[in-house]
């Protein structure tokens, strides 16, 4: 499987993105569907609303967030398998809206998809 890229949805789309997959539960503010140029919106495998809100209140809890999100992802194995199949042997970019490039759910999801 090729490397999966991660990119903020607010960054300009590029030909090198390959398949563009939005992995947020909510549509990002200020981005039109035309500008987003997404191929797939995988909102079902984004963190639950409760988990997202909990983490945004205290982002210092990164380790606990990862643990809880991985537990949520285990409940969506069929969706993850389907996504892996769709991106097999092609470039893919997971798109997220969070401002923190070093602590966001797309990083966790990429690790799961690449495992």
Written overview of the protein:
It is a single chain. By secondary structure, this protein is α/β, with parallel strands linked by helices. It has one domain (4-114). The chain is built from 5 helices and 4 strands. The protein has a 4-stranded parallel β-sheet, covered by helices on one side. Strand 2 (19-22), helix 1 and strand 3 form a beta-alpha-beta unit. Helix 3 crosses helix 5 (105-114). The longest helix is centred in the middle third of the chain and has 13 residues, at 62-74. The chain is globular, with a radius of gyration of 13 Å. The N and C termini lie close together (10 Å).
Brief characterization of the structure:
This protein is of the alpha/beta class and 115 residues long.
Strand order of the largest sheet: 1-4-2-3
Percent of sequence in beta strands: 5-15%
Number of domains: 1
| Helix content, binned percent | 40-55%
| Number of DSSP helical runs | 5
Rg, rounded, reads 13 Å
Report low-confidence residues grouped into runs of 5 or more.
none
**Termini gap:** 10 Å
Number of strands: 4
Pattern of helices and strands: EEHEHHHEH
For the residues shown, what is the average pLDDT? Answer: 93
Which structural category do the helix and sheet elements fall into? alpha/beta
Biggest sheet overview: 4 strands, parallel
How does the overall form come out from the CA principal axes? Answer: globular
């Amino acid at each position: 499987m090729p490397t999966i890229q991660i990119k903020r949805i607010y960054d300009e789309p590029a030909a090198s993105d390959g398949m563009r997959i939005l992995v947020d539960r909510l549509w990002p503010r200020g981005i039109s569907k035309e500008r987003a140029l997404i191929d797939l919106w995988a909102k079902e495998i984004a963190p639950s609303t409760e988990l997202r809100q909990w983490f945004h209140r205290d982002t210092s809890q990164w380790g606990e967030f990862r643990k809880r999100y991985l537990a949520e992802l285990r409940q969506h194995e069929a969706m993850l398998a389907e996504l892996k199949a769709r991106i097999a042997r092609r470039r893919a970019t997971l798109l997220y809206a969070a401002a923190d490039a070093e602590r966001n759910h797309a990083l966790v999801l990429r690790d799961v998809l690449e495992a």
